[in-house]
Amino acid sequence: MAHTRAAATGRAKAYSEAPAGDPPASDVILQSFAVEYEFPVHFTRELFSPANRVFVDTLRRREPERRHRCMVFVDDGVLNVRPRLPAEIEAYAEAHGRHIDLVAPPVAMPGGERVKIDLHFVEDMQRRIIERRIDRHSFVVAVGGGALLDAVGLVAATTHRGVRHIRVPTTVLAQNDSGVGVKNGVNFGGQKNMVGTFTPPFAVLNDLALIDTLPDREKIAGMAEAVKVALIRDGDFFVWLERNADDLAIFRPEAMAVMIRRCAELHMRQIAQGGDPFEAGSARPLDYGHWSAHKLEGMTRHHLRHGEAVAIGIALDARYSVTAGLLEPGSEDRIAVLLEHLGFRLWHSALEIEGEGGLVLLEGLRDFQEHLGGELTVTLLEMIGRGVEVHEIEAERVAEAIAWLWQRQAA
Q: Would you give the distance in Å from CA 248 to the centre of its chain?
């Protein structure tokens, strides 16, 4: 369970900035308050089997006797492999009709980046919510990958200034990373996640059975975030990944379940205890390997999955960390070997594209900085299990790291 705990207190005080007896230069009331927030993250199987009470008990968490109005949006990619899912959801709602009022059949929405590149989909979902009279005590449920969760999260956060939102992540990447976070958003003006909010969900319900039906490529892509968070936060977890790489490479359910849960736990710990859950500062400590990954996604028109781009970014920044004297030599090979064993290809020709100012990839540094403002802050490695923040990236070292990646794939 993720916690953002603080004393539920508030205070307001008035004071003058001028000496006593003089006309005040300004009259200020300083408002200050803190709010406690928590949400459960469940790990279960066959969430919409009528015998499984996780979903209905989640709805009843605050108001156990109420009949709760719900609207469900489902990733069309999920429907391709599990076409009976809408019928399963409707049957579940009927079986628990005392507490669930499904106001409409589940609505299919585009999955992947398609749902994030056109605000039409956001407006369409908002219109449907309003037409079905979903209010702030009702629930909007998103069943899908990280992109759909991002888009529906934005819809829920901005309709009525906040409708209760339940995430049901269906990919490895969404279950172990984005689904347990507090960010929502869609792309705008060619910029990834330019329009969005920081709004925690009401709950996250991870159905591990949904992972079984994923295409192999999607299963592999999600493992990149596990490697990333192990590298910057938990060296023992990285060793576990190495020791269990054979089982993960063939997607053994037991190993996948442990990997997903530990990765999610580490992400949740950073959000709750890292001191900056809403990214008010200049750092993005969980985004190791991401400055280049986000740029690569756009450069390849999203032919590279997010996790595939992150894997390349992880390897690139590992090599950079070594040449910068931060990380012990040889560690970059150890990291690359694990990624390759899991099924990642650590090369894409987009890495070499040159523009008028040099490598186009380096424009990702500017985008990375502009997204938060402030000074450039990039996480690198000082050892396996510990990240370090730097404020400058040298183009020559990036070029050398790209050459190192090319040599690996050419060998």
A: 21
Strand locations in 145-290 (E): 164-169, 183-188, 191-198, 203-207
Q: Is residue 68 classed as helix, strand or coil in its secondary structure? A: strand
pTM: 0.87
Whole-number Å distance between alpha carbons of 78 and 271? 28
From-to residues of CATH 3.40.50.1970 in the chain: 40-212
CATH number 3.40.50.150 is the correct assignment for the domain at 216-410: no
User: Could you count the other beta carbons within 10 Å of the beta carbon of residue 283?
Assistant: 19
**DSSP string spanning 296-327?**
HHHHTTT-S-HHHHHHHHHHHHHHHHHHTTSS
DSSP 48: T
3-state secondary structure of 356: coil
Q: How confident is the model at residue 371 (pLDDT cuts 50, 70, 90)?
A: low
Q: How far is CA 53 from CA 77, 91, 99, 139, in A?
A: 26, 13, 11, 17
Residue among 194, 111, 195 nearest 154 (CA): 195
Portions of the chain given CATH number 1.20.1090.10: 216-410
E strand or H helix at 239: helix 235-243
In the chain, DSSP finds a helix count (H) and a strand count (E) of: 16, 17
pLDDT in tens, 154-183: 999 999 999 999 999 999 999 998 899 899
Q: What's the chain's Rg over C-alpha atoms?
A: 23
User: Residue 137: enclosing H or E segment and its boundaries?
Assistant: none
The DSSP 8-state label assigned to residue 24 in this structure reads P
Domain 40-212, second-level architecture: 3-Layer(aba) Sandwich (3.40)
Q: Alpha helix (H) ranges present in 50-118? A: 54-59, 76-81, 85-95
Q: Is a pLDDT exceeding 90 seen at residue 406?
A: yes
Taking only the tens place, the pLDDT of each residue in 251-278 is 999 999 999 999 999 999 988 887 677 7
One-letter amino acid for residue 203 of the chain? A
How is the chain split among helix, strand and coil, in percent rounded to 5? 45, 20, 30
Listed residue (145, 140, 195, 131) closest to 163, CA to CA: 140
Find, among 184, 203, 243, the residue nearest to 62 by Cα.
Answer: 203
